[in-house]
Amino acid sequence: MTDTTTLYDINTPVFSVAPMLDWTDRHCRSYHRILSRRTLLYTEMITTGALIHGDRARHLNFNAGEHPVACQLGGSDPDALADAARMVEDWGYDEVNLNVGCPSDRVQNGRFGACLMLEPQLVGECIAAMKNAVSIPVTTKCRIGVDEQDPEEALDALVSAVLKAGTDAIWVHARKAWLQGLSPKENRDVPPLDYELVYRLKQRHPKVFIGINGGVATLSETQEHLRHVNGVMMGRAAYHSPMQLAGVDRLIFGDPKDDIDAREAVEAFIPYIESELAEGTKLSQITRHMLGTYQGVPGARHFRRIMTTEAVKPGAGIEVVHQALAAVHGSVSGGFGADEPEAAGAPTL
Fold first, then answer.
1. In this structure, is residue 1 part of a structural domain?
2. What residues form the catalytic site here (predicted)?
3. Among 338, 347, 245, which Cα is nearest to 24's?
């Protein structure tokens, strides 16, 4: 476990990969960890019901090398969230985060996610219950409002409630969520971003860790945000162009080391893939998270084609990865720059 006493020191920046449903599973996180030692990684959102009544190990298992790693919970019952937070801490996570931002219909029907922006007092009660249950950091991830709410008022109300409850950090997705009229996909792009609102929030709370999320596409944008807030959370851009993460330790944290290149990253991940294959994991469950490795590089299409068409075949093994590497390295050697554009995809929670 990471030393969590310094995880949210406002004098040290935090860069994280956002929790994304169906994407940031343990295989994805293990690959991202090869690319960056310092990036904070998140699980997909896990509901309290899934932990209390479901297959706990399937949801919570992670690899020791993933630290620092946080678990995001979805729920609105303080007692259930306290129980789930204890499980998260017992499993060895470095942080537990409450989702107050996901806009999907399923989440709304369960009375959690973005709809909780309408109930700041309840969110405060949830954070307080989680804080009383664990010693690891308890953090909040929210939107700037929903539907017809005034963003400044909605965000202030939510922040006031969770600060009173003792939250250790606040991550703000700088868009509204429209619970009526927009799909979850549209909620990732249609509501306009309002970074300045989050900057003003930080100015009003200089001693509180405030992190920003939403539409962050490059590490140069990350550096600009860090002039105003304490942390930056990158979502789809980190997933679709994962080699950006190779520059995080040097550019964001000043670590004096050369960035790992694409070939080195894939080769370093091979022992993990082999160990998972030996445990019965299907190759495609792992390699689907690697498809963007050569994004923007000649030969990327060959790499993706082999990894997508061959990895799904029955009995596919590590030879597929070697074949994909051989295909691309006829035309390229090494990685690429950090300023690749963000692609569309899975929801950032």
1. no
2. 102 (proton donor)
3. 347
> What type of residue sits at position 210?
I
**pLDDT under 50: residue ranges of the chain:** 331-344
Entry field: residues in the chain: 349
307 is in which domain, residue-wise? 262-328
Cis omega (within 30 of 0) for bond into 68: yes
Give, rounded to a whole angstrom, the gap between the first and last alpha carbons of the chain. Answer: 24
Q: Is 245 assigned to a binding site? A: no
Question: Is 20 annotated as ligand-binding?
Answer: yes
Rounded Cα distance between 272 and 305, Å, is 22
- Give residue 331's pLDDT: 44
Place of tokens 């004098």: 11
Q: Give residue 341's pLDDT.
A: 38
CA–CA separation, 47 vs 19, rounded Å?
A: 13
Residue from 52, 141, 135, 54 nearest 95 by CA:
135
Annotated binding-site residue? 292: no
The answer to whether 215 is a known ligand-binding residue is yes
Asked if 32 contacts 17 with a C-beta cutoff of 8 angstroms, the reply is: yes
Supply 28's token pair: 């994805």
Q: Are residues 219 and 279 in the same domain?
A: no
- Whether 13 and 226 have beta carbons less than 8 Å apart is answered as yes
CATH at 315: 1.20.120.1460
pLDDT the model gives residue 2: 65
Report d(CA 91, CA 97) in Å as an integer.
15
Residues designated catalytic = 102
Q: State residue 332's pLDDT score.
A: 40
Whether residues 219 and 283 share a domain: the answer is no
